[in-house]
Amino acid sequence: MRNQPAAATASRPQARAADLTVRRRAGRRRSWLPYLTLLPASVLIASFVVFPVATVFYYSLQQYDVTRPYLNGFVGLDNFRQVLTSDDVFRTSLAVSVKWVGSEVVGQLVLGMILALVLNSAFRGRGLARSLLFSPWAVSGVVVTTMWKLLYNPFTGMLDTVLTRVGLIHAPIQWLSDLDTVFGAVVAAELWRGVPFFAIVLLAALQGIPTDLYEAAAVDGAGRWQAFTRVTLPLLKDAIILATLLRGVWEFNNVDLIYTMTAGGPGDLTTTLPLYVVNQAIRYHNFGYGSALSVVAFAVLLLFAVLYLRLGRFGRDD
Amino acid sequence: MRTPLSKLRGPAAALLAMLAVACGGGASSGGGSASTASAAPVTITFWDTNAGPDRTPVWQELIKRFQAANPNITVEYTGIPIAQQLQKLQAAIASGAVPDVANPLTSQLSGMVAQDGLLPLDKQFNGWSGKGDIPAPLITSIRALVPDKKLYAIPISGNMTTLYYRKDWIAQKGLKPPTTWDDFYTDVNALNDPAHNVYGFGFRGATGSASQLENWVFSEAGLTTYFDSKGNASIGSQAAISVIQRAVGLYGKQTSKDDITHGFPEMVSEFDSGHAAMIMHNLGSYPQHITALGKDAVGAVTLPALSGGKHVLLNSPNISAMVFKGTKHADAAWKFAAFLAAPDSVSYFNEKIGQIPPNEKVASAQWVKDNAGIQNALATQKQSNTTLVNPPWILPDYSAIESQMEPSLQKMLLGQVTPSQFASDLAGKLATSKRQYDQAHKP
Amino acid sequence: MTRRGLLDRTGTIYLPLVLYGLFTLIPFYSMVVLSLHAGGSATGAFTFVPFPITWQHFDALINGAGFATYVRNSFVVGLGTVVCAVPIAILTGYGLQRFKLRGGQVFMLVLLMTQFVPAAMLIIPLFIIFKEIGLLNTLIGLVLINTTFELPLTAILMRGFISGIPFELEEAAMVDGCSRFQGVVRIVLPLLRPAIVAVAAFAFVGAWNNFLFALFLINDQDLYTVPVGLSYFLGEYNVDFAALAAGGVIAVLPVVLVFALIQRYLVGGLSVGAVKG
């Protein structure tokens, strides 16, 4: 039975109306009808996701190389044992993944918030600014990586050319080869692409905050920063949680940018866990081992999602 | 206007074609049965596993010629980017939704046969008029790649690892061209000018790095066999390790530090934009270098000789035509494959892409004589003191092992892994793979 | 006050705007320059201005590489995904939000879990499913698979928007004699219209830019979408940077234009209640 929304005042006509609806529903005995709303989504997921994900779980217990059938067979938990106890790359890639997701989500959130606040103010050309600044998110993945790779090219790329011309540096910086800069360089490219997502969601959420709340805060003597932390942020809490969770999961599993820019290198420096999974399963044909890695990643993500939602108390009505 | 529903057109047409063939009495099952099906219109699908702006037009021209000579056969071309081609082929074989013909490299053959995806072409090949033009050793080596020694691929293009160097700079400085390894290192040092952003050598540090290094090591260390009699890989030998050490020693000094992330495009860009004096690649990029720098600036030779003038060269795989087991038009598919392997097509294709035509009739063509890189490769191959070594393409995971070593190679360039560790790791993987294969295929 | 005000505005609006604008536009600028420049195809070398200008790269794309077909296919898949994803998102979001269903939170987790495995691992089983159902090599198949994988984003966002529409409004309608369904159609949907636009935009861009499914589940070159068409320029021996740049421009222009048109709705509408969650 659904809860009634906590109405500020339950007036008598409203209470009677609520009773009516409850009685109506009970009378019709259509308690399964609400579940019908989940039917189309469930059908799609059942058709296209359940079986493929199940095969990954299935193969995690196998040695499976499609080009070497003479080695294939059930190996029980051996793959998992190897992953968890003797695979250094697994550990480093998990660490890189955490670093990657952390930097991206925090970076995109902060920049997205700033952008949203700026684009929330009134100024001439706001509409144009919004369209332009949201557009990186619409660019195709292969174009994004190619363009950024060109930018970073120390011989022919824009960055080093301009910086040398202006005199800020004397020798070209090897953005994607230098161990100190490569991670930041790849992070910057993904930031470029991902900030608009946050900007859009947060900008919209900002619109829903009644201006009288800000006025009340101003009357109380709150400065701009206090208004932000006391009024804006709490009301954006759910939007932030939702956006960061969705984005976090997406960034975790998205390999195309890193793969094309550095292929996970130099060494294992930018190899995230899903990149390692794809390398093992697809490039090296160790599909069984790659599946086991994938299952472990799945568990990590599930744990993270559950904890995150619990901690954020997402969806609880105020 | 085409709508998604129009996709039924394809299968419907294929169904009609099959019915026509069945009624016409020509069975389309693998064999070389006399084809009475030639009258009925047939559509076959061809997947290009290396689609790109320079190759696709060549294939389309070949298809045009084929269709002109065989009016009842239509060839549908689908281009697949090289980065995903293997996975797509494997998915197709796994599900049965295969094309009729494709053009993968012979290095992929053993894996695809292990998946039971290909049609053996022995009968068709033996009955083919053009079979004598293809060098017999090449056919034998292709048969040797699979357990049942049947012929699953017809070669249409050959390749060779090539050392490209700036002929003009060498001449300017009065240096000797890098035809021996000593000359190579002399030239690399002499042409190195980091102050002006020019390096002696362009190292391939990213995708394809391990393969390239392997070619280098075999040539400079003079390794004449891939595995020794005990099944150890010669890449793990002391001679090999010394060469690796020397090669890696160039990194950062005679090569740009950026090379560690250089895959093919970056490496070629470095050479073509005048920032590297020499690179190693294969004949396939020769046309591109000439376009960028001009014919007089680019020298193309095989990997250098050892001090006695002797060459050891690791062979490169062949582009080949393969027919898939699930094909419903085996006769038409074979016709297309045979067409691609015929002298005219081989000549046209290889002239356009700058690679070696594996066909006796084409070897004396004028364009072959005019291509300095190919001439050099052919001449070196024919020398009596040249040893040609075949990589173990029979091992289905050979390419995967090479890919697996790429992160380790980068670590080696960074000094985090020693050449000795790298070599023994690689040798160990190769030996294990060979042992597992031999065990599984005991006669 | 004006001097102070201007300084203030500069600091909080114009400066961040310009800085971020530079960051956003520089890659675009280099992309446009590269696509118009006569040289630089093979090396992608940077030049400040695209002189000498040439249209050859765009020409090669549209006439040579058949890019018009790819753009058309991408539109079909994109619009198809919107048509499928938006109603399902509304339905699912409404169900999750309005009926505090037992297992609602679990269902949300299930939605999220569809994103927990890298897509590359799912290709072969998907391939097999598609072949069995007969969806292989069809644009409809792409529409369905994109809809499925956009579900977490679209449904969960929609749930948030719906939560901001007070249920009292529907109740009032039902008291007046409407059925629940009519209540939704008459009251909720109009209020949701801007939210629908937002979710549609996310769904469209997601489907427009999808590469993996489009490459693996389509065998017919005539049905290739834009991302697959673009990857054609990443050949083994030749990366045609200028063509890729031109392709990127062609690929992004329609989406940016659509964006420009709808950005006003985007903001107006998500406002209704993404706040409350």
Query: Biggest β-sheet of chain B, characterized?
Result: 5 strands, mixed
**Secondary structure tally: strands of chain B:** 10
Shape of chain B: globular
Please state roughly what percent of the residues of chain C sit in beta strands, choosing from under 5%, 5-15%, 15-25%, 25-35%, 35-45% or over 45%.
under 5%
List keywords for this structure.
heterotrimer, A: 318 residues, mainly alpha, MetI-like fold, two-stranded antiparallel ribbon, 70% helix, disordered N terminus, C: 277 residues, 74% helix, disordered C terminus
Describe, in plain words, how this protein is organized in 3D.
- The complex is a heterotrimer of chains A (318), B (443) and C (277).
- Chain A has helices at 12-28, 33-36, 39-59, 78-86, 88-120, 126-134, 141-152, 158-166, 182-207, 211-219, 224-253, 256-262, 273-283, 287-312, and strands spanning 62-63, 73-74.
- Chain A has 2 domains: 1-48; 91-312, MetI-like (MetI-like fold, Orthogonal Bundle).
- A two-stranded antiparallel sheet of chain A has the order 1-2.
- Chain A is built from 14 helices and 2 strands; from the N terminus they run αααββααααααααααα.
- With 318 residues, chain A is mostly helical.
- In chain A, α10 crosses α11 (224-253).
- Helices cover 70% and strands 1% of the residues of chain A.
- Chain A is globular and about 75 Å long.
- Chain A starts with 11 loop residues before the first helix and ends in a 6-residue tail after the last helix.
- By secondary structure, chain B is of the alpha/beta class.
- Chain B is built from 18 helices and 10 strands.
- Mean pLDDT of chain B is 89; it is low at 1-37.
- Chain C is mainly α and 277 residues long.
- In chain C, 74% of the residues lie in helices and 0% in strands.
- Chain C has 11 helices and no strands.
- Chain C has helices at residues 2-36, 56-64, 67-98, 104-113, 119-133, 139-163, 167-175, 180-208, 212-216, 226-231, 241-270.
- In chain C, α1 runs antiparallel to α11 (241-270) and α3 runs antiparallel to α8.
- The longest helix of chain C has 35 residues, at 2-36.
- Chain C is globular.
- The two termini of chain C are 39 Å apart.
- In chain C, 61% of the residues are buried.
- The interface between B and C is large, with 43 and 37 residues.
